[in-house]
TrEMBL record:
The gene is PKP1A. The keyword Repeat applies. It comes from Nothobranchius pienaari. One of its GO terms (cellular component) is adherens junction. This is Plakophilin 1a. InterPro entries: ARM-like, Plakophilin/d_Catenin. Residues 94-113 are annotated as: Disordered.
């Protein structure tokens, strides 16, 4: 259901930054909790939709959540080999945008200790 929501686009999520953020964050947690099950829903169309959201500056928090989702997908070793077999490559998941957002998160986490 989450993957269908993402591939349907931000319009289907009411063009709401909060909703986009929630959907991407929830999907991230679910994928990390069950990377094996995630393989059933991950496809190039989903990855393209997440990438589009991550680059959409109209959604300040949503684009960051989508960037973290992409970054996390590649960093999960089990998913990474699956993604490679699907013909996807690292640049789709680890790029300037996703690295920047991940670094912000790491810095904020270490500053809050």
């Amino acid at each position: 259901a989450m993957s269908k929501l993402i591939t349907s686009g931000v319009e289907e999520m009411g063009n709401s930054d909060q909703t986009v953020t929630g959907v991407c964050s929830t999907m991230n947690r679910l994928m990390l909790a069950d990377s094996e099950g995630s393989k059933k829903v991950i496809n190039p169309e989903l990855v393209q939709a997440i990438t589009s959201i991550s680059l959409n500056e109209n959604f300040v928090k949503g684009s960051k959540a989508a960037s973290l989702l992409l970054y996390s997908m590649w960093k999960e070793t089990n998913l990474q080999s699956f993604l490679k077999k699907q013909g996807m490559n690292k640049d789709q998941f680890v790029n300037d945008r996703t690295k920047e957002v991940n670094n912000e998160l790491v810095e904020n986490t270490s500053n809050n200790k």
